[in-house]
Amino acid sequence: MRSLDVSALDPVGVNQNKMRFLEAFAAFCAVAPSPPIDQGAQQEFDQNHVTVARRGREPGLSLRFDGRDVDMKTWAAEILDAMQGTCELLDHGDATRPYSAALAVQSQKLADVEATPSARLLKEMRDTGESFFDIALRMSRTYKSYFTELHPPNEARTAEFTAEAEASLEAQARLEAAPQPPFRDYLAAYLAD
């Protein structure tokens, strides 16, 4: 599992569907058979990671698995299909089936590349003529307004945070102005503990 990309399309950078999908994926990985990874497999995985990062939107992209070429979309579909049982277990007792719904959202992205966040951002850039930076800045302003209007500012809490920030900056200035021992002495004392 790779780290989560922050999505410019979501006000907080991620949404519940993505979080549920990742939870289901982690549970699936925890229970799926997983033989030890030898050096050759690790090299394939590392190369696949680079290939997807650089060319993941390329139609017909192949990756390497167990010494053979595998169509990326086919492999992804196999993984998503295999996750269905995990999602059903996680959905147990919830009539809304949130994990299965989250899996369906990801399956839709596999079936229709235009539903992926990258395709949606590229379309937005084409439609508006804006750069990614311009779109991200515009969305950031929109999200700031959304959250600011969601709950009116608490003046007392804002004053408290402002005072804490000022005190922190003053404490930092005092620490930086204080005499410092030579790095060799600092390191020896640090390592002695």
Describe the fold and architecture.
The protein is mostly helical. It folds into two domains: 16-129, no CATH class; 155-192. The radius of gyration is 24 Å and the shape is extended. The chain has helices spanning 16-31, 39-55, 72-91, 98-111, 117-128, 132-150, 155-177, 183-192, and strands spanning 62-65, 68-71. Strands 1-2 form a two-stranded antiparallel ribbon.
Mind sketching the topology for me?
Layout: H1 16-31, H2 39-55, E1 62-65, E2 68-71, H3 72-91, H4 98-111, H5 117-128, H6 132-150, H7 155-177, H8 183-192
Antiparallel strand pairs: 1-2
Helix pairs in contact: 1-3, 1-4, 3-4
Keywords for this entry:
mainly alpha, 68% helix, two-stranded antiparallel sheet, 4% strand, 2 domains, 8 helices, 193 residues, extended
What's this entry about, in short?
The chain is 68% helix and 4% strand. It has 193 residues and is mainly alpha-helical.
Number of strands: 2
Helix-strand string: HHEEHHHHHH
Q: What is the count of distinct domains?
A: 2
**Major sheet details:** 2 strands, antiparallel
- How do the strands of the widest beta sheet line up side by side? 1-2
Ends apart, CA distance between termini = 36 Å
Helix content: 55-70%
Low-confidence stretches: none
Question: What proportion of the residues form beta strands (DSSP E)?
Answer: under 5%
Structure classification: mainly alpha
Q: Can you tell me the overall shape?
A: extended
Number of helix segments? 8
Integer-rounded radius of gyration: 24 Å
Mean pLDDT: 93
